[in-house]
Specification:
Blueprint: H1 2-36, E1 43-47, E2 50-56, E3 59-72, E4 75-85, E5 90-101, E6 104-114, E7 119-131, E8 137-148, E9 153-164, E10 169-179, E11 184-188, E12 192-197, E13 200-205, E14 208-212, E15 217-228, E16 231-241, E17 246-250, E18 254-256, E19 260-263, E20 266-272, E21 275-289, E22 302-314, E23 317-333, E24 341-355, E25 361-367, E26 371-377
């Protein structure tokens, strides 16, 4: 009887042990299912030096450290520290962060990816890079960058430096909004555009700035300043056409060179390889100039007024002026070894003025209904 009782007790213990093992197996199977069943679609761990999985309430948090490389929702993430929140569908990364999404790449000190919003947030030395099919890149560097994947929209804030390798354009500012699909960008907080080619540099600054179709057209508004070829042009509004190498300035535009000041209702600047080559002044066109490089005095210097004035520039110096319509000009030349003193006031329909290598007026030709006062004197 005792032997039978002992056997019966063993069988009962064995049943309990089997039941416990089965329960543990089912729990592990459930846990494995819970952890990995839905992950392969958007999570694939390539490498990590250490991994911990913690269940905090209903949230499962996967913590990775050291040389991390994994794919989540078809995006590649690299860093030294990472956390993946399964229910919230959030990825947090710190230290040497690198995120690769097809032809886009993000780097930063810290980053977060929100899958439900399809948003990537970068902070600290943030860099957003777009790779083009022609092997050129466009980058945005800033303190903070947010990228919305579905909209393909980039928003950068604070200490922005944007560079376009294809166009050779760099823009700095305090805020930038860039639509990748449309190639449209908006910048504010005193953006500055630098377009450099060899030794010639075009600099445009303003309060706000927009570029369209990947810099085919640029619009600058409020406090516009254009620095190029030792000259400064100011206005309230500017449109710059990149392919035509042309800028139109409106809103009290004024051009100031080394020895001239020009203004009108509209100024058009023409460039060749970022060097200023021609200026068109339209409607109430005025230019005051001096044969000496000094501060221009509009009361005492030479001037040219007209409906339209065209100025041609070579080697950063004015070489030719042409005025059309309601021309009024004052010209006073000093006596030199090669020429006498002269003072002329001319009225007419058209006028052409040629400038010599010493920045002196070499020749004036006027046509149609010419009147005026002419004074010549040998000193």
């Amino acid at each position: 009887m005792g032997e039978k009782k002992y056997t019966k007790m063993n069988i009962q213990k064995m049943h309990r042990l089997i039941a416990l093992m089965l329960a543990e197996f089912l729990f592990c199977l459930y846990l494995f299912n819970y952890i990995f069943a839905d992950e392969p679609a958007h999570f694939n761990l390539i490498n990590a030096n250490k991994m911990n999985i913690d269940l905090i309430g209903n949230e499962r948090v996967t913590t990775l450290t050291g040389d991390i490389d994994f794919f989540y929702n078809q995006i590649e993430f690299k860093s030294q520290n990472a956390q993946i929140f399964e229910k919230k569908e959030i990825v947090k990364l710190t230290n040497e962060v690198e995120i690769i999404d097809d032809t886009l790449k993000c780097t930063a000190h810290k980053a977060q990816y929100f899958k439900k919003k399809e948003m990537i947030y970068l902070q600290g030395n943030a860099v957003f890079t777009e790779f083009h099919s022609d092997n050129t890149i466009r980058t945005f560097k800033a303190d903070k960058i947010t990228y919305y994947r579905n909209k393909r929209l980039v928003i950068a804030k604070d200490n922005i430096i944007s560079y376009d390798q294809r166009e050779g354009i760099t823009i700095t500012g305090g805020y930038a909004r860039y639509d990748i699909n449309d190639g449209y960008g908006f910048l504010k907080y005193h953006p500055v555009l630098v377009h450099k080619e060899d030794e010639d540099t075009l600099i445009i600054s303003s309060k706000e700035m927009e570029f369209f179709k990947n810099y085919e057209k640029l619009v600058a508004t409020y406090n516009v300043r254009v620095n190029v070829s030792n000259s400064l042009t100011t206005s309230r509004f500017l449109i710059y056409f990149n392919k035509e190498n042309k800028a139109i300035l409106l809103g009290e535009p004024q051009f100031k060179g080394e020895n001239s000041i020009a203004s009108g209702e509209e100024l058009q600047l023409y460039f060749s390889e970022r060097e200023l080559t021609e200026i068109h002044i339209k409607d109430n066109a005025q230019i005051f100039y001096s044969e000496k490089q000094k501060e221009i005095d509009k009361k005492g210097d030479n001037y040219l007024f007209s409906d339209l004035i065209k100025i041609k520039i070579r080697d950063r110096k004015i070489k030719f002026l042409q005025a059309e319509g309601n021309v009024q000009a004052r010209y006073e030349q000093e006596q030199t070894e090669k020429r006498d003193y002269a003072k002329n006031i001319i009225f007419g329909d058209t006028l052409r003025m040629f400038i010599d290598e010493e920045d002196r007026i070499d020749n004036i030709r006027a046509n149609n209904r010419i009147t005026g006062n002419f004074f010549f004197q040998k000193k």
